[in-house]
Amino acid sequence: MSINRTKSRVANKDVMFQNRLTNFTSPPIHNGDLYVERNELIGGNLDVSGNLTVRKDIRAKNFYASGNYYLDDYVLIPAGTVIQSAAINEPEGWFECDGRSLNTTVYSDLFSAIGYTYGGSNGTFKIPDTRGRVCIGAGQGDGLTNHNLSSTGGEEAHTLSVNEIPSHSHSLIRRANPDDGAYDTNSGRQDESSAATTDRADLGPFNTSYTGGGAAHNIMQPFIALRHLIKY
């Protein structure tokens, strides 16, 4: 082991390396602070049970963390954050928003963020279920309807009611001296229920024939399905 300068060899004190290659025959255990002033090459694993403070850049091929990411004491991706993903499987630290129930103690960070907003009670809580749904902003925008957090609505298909049909009319045109009891409308040619006469003055009432099927119609916008993931 090549050490340029050792501040203290006593346990629980600081150890300083200064741009030296250090080879240990067995993994060292140090309970104090480790200061690296220049370059340090680590071929194995660095296990830090406390805080790791880096005052300059970090460059890594992969970066793994089981907890939260902080920047200047602020969490970069707080629990409860929802993102969209094209991934087939759930990445570590994330759940698909499928409405599952979770333990309030095991996933305490996520529970602190969303509570029972999406269901649950006592020792379990639920996460949002966004499968097949489009997310909108909660609250009330200018001139818009208020939507509370976790509220749902909308439909994939809709059948128009009479009140939803635009106001309209149908005109009836009597043919001159018809001999077959028929009349024309802007909806097509219709037959009278009584025999026609050449001197008849009363032309009504008439009913146009029914048209249309009354089935629900699709109101979905063009879409592509992705996963919604929530950070825990």
UniProtKB/TrEMBL annotation:
Coiled coil: none annotated. Residues 167-205 are annotated as: Disordered. Residues 80-134 form the Phage tail collar domain. Residues 184-197 have a biased composition (Polar residues). This is Phage tail collar domain-containing protein. InterPro entries: Phage_tail_collar_dom, Phage_tail_collar_dom_sf.
